[in-house]
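User: Design a sequence. Structure:
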């Protein structure tokens, strides 16, 4: 705009000067030419002759010369101005062209800058979008990570149950609500019996599978409002809100115990799981979660100390019970050293003719207040590690006694001895049995060792290996308490056995209903189908003996023949039978 205005001003001035020049008379230049003096004459010899005019040239006046000179000057000035204007016009045109070129270049540069800016803006926008997407992904990943961390913190990675921390939080809330609403709740502690031994024998993978299976069974058995947690190892805890009476918690505990008794197929074998369960009630056993949990665990320990596979309610006298248990343990250790243990013997007879074939040894404890049956102190011995020395003592003394009776005339008398699960799992069992036979002089074929069906199902691979070692010694192996567990036919076929002994519970049902009679008859048939001798224990009536004989049972023992007898009484019974 500035260049165009200047150019317009120059053009306007040039037009005015041009108009003023056009108004001057045109004759002035011709008169000026006529008045100019002729050029200098050439030398006469070089110039041609010219014809001179006839009339003389008139002379001009001075004022005409002055006029001509002024006109020439003005015309020269005008020409000079025109030339200057023309030059200025050229310069202005050049400046205009340069300005237009610069403008074009500026616009092009501006367009390039705009394009560059747009490109940079596009790149920045794309980068911003990518950064936004990356931030969103990072935030989503962080949220997922936080959720996973919360799951890790709030759940047990092995079983999927709630963590100990979350269990305690829920228990604290439940206790507060129960206190406000004046209600009861129960905290239950559950320990898997013999888990450490099973884990060592079958491996950690099977142990982990067992814990997962136990956790699933607990969740299935309890209500949705209940909380199940694994606190550590094989220790589970349960929170049961809305418990009205202690009997409600007892029913739940019994239901849990029965549920766990079902065989679990793990590692290609069926396992029977038992548990020790402790129950604590709010507000009876404690005002807060810590106290309730401690009471429940103490009750579970008491259940395990008395043999496991049972539950215990915590009571205010639990401390006294624990002290009593410790006292009885010390007394049992002294009994082993001071000779307070006794053996009683129950005859095993042929079911057809009543001939005495063997005797089964039963351990007793002679206390000042009377004779204590083994079922009352063996659970204590099992939980304290005393079952191994007690079992070895019983085996050695029974072998010596029967060897003496054989030498005294009972030449074909056999001996049957029960093995505890700790004896069966001991790696030196065969060596200990061989030593007892060697020290007593009793032939290996005269000795039968009984293994409970529950012990076979608890650790089948270990038990089968130990039984094979015993069979190699020449002793017979008997599966006792048969019918109480859930042994499969495949498991029985894989176990080295010589006989099965029908459990007294099955025998007792013979006279009660058709279903139990059918079970007893099927057990006899199964034993014979496997090529085993079938023995019935706990036969107390003639009806039971008659039916067992009709089904083909081979041997029996029970009160119908004789109860477990002291050594001298048993010897008298044997001699009387021989005499008869």
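Assistant: Done.
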């Amino acid at each position: 705009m500035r260049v165009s205005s200047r150019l317009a001003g120059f053009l306007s001035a040039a037009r005015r000067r041009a108009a003023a020049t056009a108004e001057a008379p045109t004759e002035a230049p011709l008169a000026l030419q006529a008045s100019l003096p002729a050029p200098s004459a050439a030398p006469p010899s070089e110039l041609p002759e010219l014809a001179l005019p006839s009339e003389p040239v008139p002379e001009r006046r001075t004022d005409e010369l002055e006029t001509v000179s002024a006109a020439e000057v003005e015309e020269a000035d005008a020409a000079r101005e025109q030339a200057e204007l023309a030059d200025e016009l050229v310069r202005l045109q050049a400046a205009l062209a340069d300005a237009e070129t610069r403008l074009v270049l500026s616009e092009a540069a501006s367009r390039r800058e705009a394009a560059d800016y747009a490109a940079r803006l596009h790149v920045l926008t794309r980068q911003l979008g990518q950064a936004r997407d990356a931030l969103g992904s990072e935030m989503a990943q962080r949220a997922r990570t936080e959720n996973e961390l919360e799951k890790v913190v709030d759940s047990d990675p092995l079983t999927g149950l709630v963590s100990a921390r979350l269990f305690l939080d829920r228990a604290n809330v439940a206790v507060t609500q129960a206190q406000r609403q004046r209600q009861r709740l129960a905290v239950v502690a559950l320990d898997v019996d013999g888990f450490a031994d099973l884990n060592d024998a079958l491996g950690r993978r099977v142990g982990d599978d067992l814990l997962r299976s136990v956790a699933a069974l607990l969740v299935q058995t309890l209500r949705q409002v209940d909380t199940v947690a694994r606190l550590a190892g094989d220790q589970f805890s349960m929170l049961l809100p809305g418990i009205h009476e202690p009997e409600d918690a007892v029913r739940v505990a019994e239901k849990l115990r029965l549920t766990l008794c079902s065989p679990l197929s793990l590692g290609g074998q069926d396992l029977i799981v038992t548990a020790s369960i402790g129950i604590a009630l709010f507000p009876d056993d404690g005002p807060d979660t810590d106290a309730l949990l401690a009471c429940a665990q103490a009750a579970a320990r008491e259940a395990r100390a008395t043999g496991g596979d049972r539950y215990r309610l915590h009571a205010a006298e639990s401390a006294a019970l624990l002290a009593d248990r410790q006292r009885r343990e010390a007394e049992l250790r002294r009994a082993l050293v001071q000779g307070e243990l006794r053996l009683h013997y129950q005859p095993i007879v042929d079911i057809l003719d009543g001939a005495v074939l063997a005797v089964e040894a039963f351990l007793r404890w002679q206390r000042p207040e009377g004779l204590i049956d083994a079922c009352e102190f063996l659970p204590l011995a099992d939980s304290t590690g005393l079952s191994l020395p007690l079992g070895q003592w019983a085996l050695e003394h029974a072998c010596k006694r029967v060897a003496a009776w054989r030498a005294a005339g009972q030449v074909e008398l056999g001996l049957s001895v029960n093995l505890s699960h700790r004896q069966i799992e001991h790696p030196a069992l065969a060596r200990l049995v061989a030593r007892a036979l060697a020290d007593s002089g009793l032939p290996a074929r005269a000795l039968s060792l009984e293994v409970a069906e529950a012990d076979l199902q608890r650790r089948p691979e270990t038990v089968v290996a130990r039984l094979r070692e015993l069979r190699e010694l020449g002793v017979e192996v008997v599966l006792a308490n048969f019918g109480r567990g859930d042994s499969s036919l495949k498991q029985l076929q894989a176990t080295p056995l010589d006989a099965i002994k029908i459990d007294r519970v099955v025998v007792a049902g013979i006279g009660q209903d058709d279903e139990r009679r059918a079970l007893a008859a099927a057990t006899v048939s199964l034993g014979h189908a496997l090529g085993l001798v079938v023995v019935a224990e706990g036969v107390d009536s003639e009806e039971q003996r008659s039916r067992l004989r009709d089904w083909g049972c081979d041997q029996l023992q029970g009160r119908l023949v004789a109860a477990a007898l002291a050594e001298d009484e048993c010897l008298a019974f044997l001699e009387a039978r021989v005499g008869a």
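The first helix runs from residue 2 to 22. Residues 24-53 have pLDDT under 50 and may be disordered.
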